[in-house]
Amino acid sequence: MKTRAVAPPEWATRLFASQLAPLRAAKGESGAVWSIARDRSQARISDQFKVNAGDYHARYAAASHFQDLFQHALVKTEVQVAEAPLILDLGSGSGVNSIVPWFNLAPGARQVATDLSGELLAILADYALSEGLSDRVLCVVMDAMGDHVRPGQFDLVTGASILHHLVLPNRGIRAAARALKPGGHAIFMEPFQGYGLIRLAYERILAEAVLRNDRLHPAVELALKRMVADIAARTMPDPTRPGFADLDDKWLFSSEHIEHAAKKMGFSRVRIVPHNDHDQLYRDVASVQLRLAIGIEAPLALPAWAIAILDSFDAALPPPVKRLLMLEGTIVMTKGD
Prior knowledge:
Layout: H1 10-13, E1 20-24, E2 33-36, H2 47-50, H3 56-59, H4 63-77, E3 86-89, H5 99-105, E4 110-115, H6 118-130, E5 137-141, E6 154-160, H7 170-179, E7 180-191, H8 195-212, H9 218-234, H10 255-264, E8 267-274, H11 281-294, H12 298-301, H13 304-316, H14 319-324, E9 328-335
Parallel strand pairs: 2-5, 3-4, 3-6, 4-5, 6-7
Antiparallel strand pairs: 1-2, 7-9, 8-9
Helix pairs in contact: 4-5, 8-9, 8-13, 9-11, 11-13
């Protein structure tokens, strides 16, 4: 079968300090994936994740949600993105969260998608080829926290749910600052320490079940205890403790943490846009978390008195306070001139 790509696009060659090597050439319906010649670090994905990899409608259905979040952050911060920006995305995966939204938000954009998994990037490369977008995205297997891209080359650096997976999230902020042109922007979506309120609500539900002698379903009880432990472990964690590096989700951030790190790395302005403040926020979050943990949503998994506890947390905090004590937010950082 005829090979379509033997070299990366011309616009991308000047962006890298290291030579690019083809990890998978474009053939037939397969898009090209590249690697850094001297960086052989890779990660694998599960067989379950590969199932229906080519079902792009299902896999990329959530992209519009992330597009709305990016758009909302741009509107709230009044950040203007160049008409045809060069974008570096950190930890792209298959591109659902960050690459695909920018195909629509900035139709003239050219994007460098990075990840440690060549398999995930292959899914993105195939999708881009199927949509006629291969000329607008370069998929590169590499450690995006390193120094493989030349400094000061990009208009925009993006990352959706990447910093909280890092042992040292400041490395991600540093990598963004290094890659950006003066005046460029970095946009990250991350979880925040407002999840401490969810932890308190779950702890109260667990305690109330004992006081009422109304035991929760064992699967629900175990799920709540695990979520309490997870939130506790990610609140001001010690990254040097044994086993920390093996955790998937590692951090819940505070605004102060992000602002301090950003200023230290050369960003002149930091704005954080909360994602949610609606009336039933905590009930809805519990529903999602229980569905993901045991396959049953909160109204069915929890007794009425437990739902009432979640509703009491929602009733106690008006939208402005929920925004201050945010669960999730979009971080917009501007590099100094």
